[in-house]
Amino acid sequence: MTPPLIERFRRILPVDAATPVVTLGEGGTPLLRAPRLSERYGREIWIKWEGGNPTGSYKDRGMTVAVSKAVEDDAAAVICASTGNTAASAAAYAARAGIPALVLVPAGAVSGAKVAQTRMLGATVLEVRGDFEEALAGAQELARRGTHVLVNSLNPYRREGQKTAVYEIVEELGRAPDAFVIPYGGGGNTSAYAQAIRELGLGTRIVSAEAADRRHTLASAIRIGDPVHAASVEQAGAQVLPVTDDAIVAAWRELGALEGVFCEPSSAAGLAALGIGDVQGERVVLTLTGHGLKDVAAAERYAPPPVQCDPSPDAIAKAAGT
Ligand code: F0G
Fold first, then answer.
1. CATH number of 59-154
2. What's the predicted TM-score (pTM) here?
3. Structure confidence by residue, pLDDT tens digits, 68-122
4. Mutational pocket test of ligand 1: of 29, 57, 154, the residue with most ligand atoms within 8 Å of the beta carbon
């Protein structure tokens, strides 16, 4: 069995013997060299492949800690607002813990695959007529009323769990990289990375790539107008770089075709930021936060279309251009 993230990182997490370990075998994701991208972008690029987590995104690192602590504190149920990935992760870990999850998503603005995943994991899904910020305000209010424990990244246990990605990267590389490059939606992950950098005393910079048009980007995971962690992102000294949707799509396709990694669009924002060119550092680690199967509809829209042909070998060879 994959050792639970909580067991591997017990020494740096706020857990003790009384904390039940709610796990799906999260963390320990691949760190991959990216030789073709390194050549193209003129620096040493590594990929931290967080799509390899149990529900297909990095959220599982934080959710194992948040739900374990919620169970330790006798929570009756958990709640979150989400652009999709937190939803699926909360649903999975709540199911694992045997408690209900209530998930609020902005209606019509979340990948259908993520909503389907969350529904299949047994959560109650409410499509809120409003944006992510309004859904989050609603979730916070229910948490205040005490019926649910909030498992958004405002829950500090989420960030504690998420910081473990930095620990894994540094341990595996054998040294700190010059920069961590990550997408920036609400900013919870940037502050989690900053926390690990502080704890480890690293000089590594964080580059946080946000959608240039936050409210309308095709990268629905980071479609957040008003990031709740903006102040701590600034405090962390992160370099915030806005990237256009065109740049995200180009980077997304490069990650697939040049390195064989199919991520979701928001995850490609980091590579798009590297393309802008004013990122310092020779050795950089690009965290790809979510799996491409999380947003099949976007892939269908932006991947090169298939060509139809007759089944004869000649027709196939002709259509393939060989
Ligand atoms: N990448 C993915 C795949 C995400 O799902 C998110 C956020 C981010 C990056 C941005 O991280 O918010 O910590 O700056 N997803 C949240 C959700 C908002 O509800 O799933 P952040």
1. 3.40.50.1100
2. 0.97
3. 999 999 999 999 999 999 999 999 999 999 999 999 999 999 999 999 999 999 9
4. 57
Cβ atoms of residues 79 and 151 within 8 Å: yes
pLDDT of residue 277: 74
- Determine which residue's CA is closest to atom 10 belonging to ligand 1: 185
Nearest CA to ligand 1 atom 4: 221
Ligand 1 centroid–CA 221 distance in Å is 5
Which residue minimizes the CA distance to atom 15 of ligand 1?
221
- Residues pairing with 211 in the sheet: 243
Task: Please tell me if the domain spanning 5-58+157-302 has the same topology as the one spanning 59-154.
Answer: yes
CB 37 within 8 A of CB 251: no
Distance 185 CA to ligand 1 centre (A): 5
CA distance 25 to 192: 20
Which stretch of DSSP H or E encloses residue 240? strand 239-243
Instruction: Give the model's pLDDT for residue 1.
Output: 66
CATH class of the domain whose range is 5-58+157-302: alpha beta
How many percent of the chain have pLDDT more than 70?
Answer: 100
How is the chain split into domains, by residue range? Answer: 5-58+157-302, 59-154
Q: 147 pLDDT band (50/70/90 cuts)?
A: very high
Residue from 41, 48, 23, 109 nearest 289 by CA = 48
Q: How far is CA 26 from the centre of its chain?
A: 13
